[in-house]
Amino acid sequence: MLCDFHLHTEFSGDSETPVRDQAERAAALGMNEICITDHHDYDALEGGDTFLLDFASYFPALRQVREEYAGTIRIHTGVELGLQLHIRDYLMKLAPSLPVDFIIGSSHFIDGKDPYFPSFFHQQTEQEAYTRYFAATLDRVRSLDCFDVLGHLDYIVRYGPHQNREYSYSAYREYIDPILKALIEKGKGLECNTGGFKAGLGHPHPAEDILIRYRELGGEILTVGSDAHTPAYVGHEFRRLPQLLQACGFRYYTVFRQRKPVFVPL
């Protein structure tokens, strides 16, 4: 099975799953490596310090579990960094100091608010909310170099009032194409996140037409992740991915070791 490079554990503010439980599930599915990528969203106004990662506890705990499972599954250490421009200096200083194999950069908070909460969509149309989200993500990708791969590019559609019913790549192409081009130009990758299937979208994040466009533009670095917060969703719908990604033009997907991409045949 493909290797899951987006997993959360008890060190994330939105999960209570022990690291070992995620590792056990991945090993049972036949994965030979995974990456734990717990949340660190610094200065996120809505939610306060809920998503601040306790690095002093996190790294030793993952190191211990990695040693325990050395003969069973390779466990990489990662982090999902919340991208925000007003903390650019903080992020740019932090990222090189982290002893990790992989950093996902994600847009979770827009003007201090998370689209996860329905209040994000108050006093604006769904189209206006989506536009704000993609515009902010574009600015962040252009300005920040503290990550390896952009996570769940169209994350916001999980939580929109109509989800992806009225959403399409073409409707937001003026933002999405520059995001993809900036990633490629900067040597960054894109994530195929199967959390979209869990949310009932019928598609991964980003949707297939965006994956196709990324490949057309020359994008090659593509990780896969379930965004699982419980063992039940580790590797969720990964059985679909080889055929789906090949149909989008990919022959390889990517894992990271010591923040260097390694290409694995699909």
What percent of the residues sit in helical stretches (DSSP H or I)?
A: 25-40%
> Would you tell me the structural class of the helices and strands?
alpha/beta
* Rg over CA atoms: 17 Å
Q: What kind of sheet is the major sheet? A: 6 strands, parallel
Rounded to the nearest angstrom, the distance between the terminal CA atoms is: 9 Å
Q: In total, how many beta strands?
A: 8
Poorly predicted runs of 5 or more residues: none
User: In what order do the strands lie side by side in the largest sheet?
Assistant: 1-2-3-4-5-6
Shape: globular
What does this structure look like?
The protein has 266 residues and is an alpha/beta fold. Helix content is 32%, strand content 17%. The chain has 8 helices and 8 strands. The protein has helices at 19-28, 55-68, 88-97, 126-143, 173-185, 195-198, 208-216, 241-247; strands at 33-40, 74-82, 102-106, 149-150, 189-193, 222-225, 252-257, 260-265. The strands form 2 sheets. It has a 6-stranded parallel β-sheet. Strands 7-8 form a two-stranded antiparallel ribbon. β1, α2 (55-68) and β2 form a beta-alpha-beta unit. α4 (126-143) runs parallel beside α5 (173-185). The longest helix has 18 residues, at 126-143. The radius of gyration is 17 Å and the shape is globular. The model has no long low-confidence stretch (mean pLDDT 96).
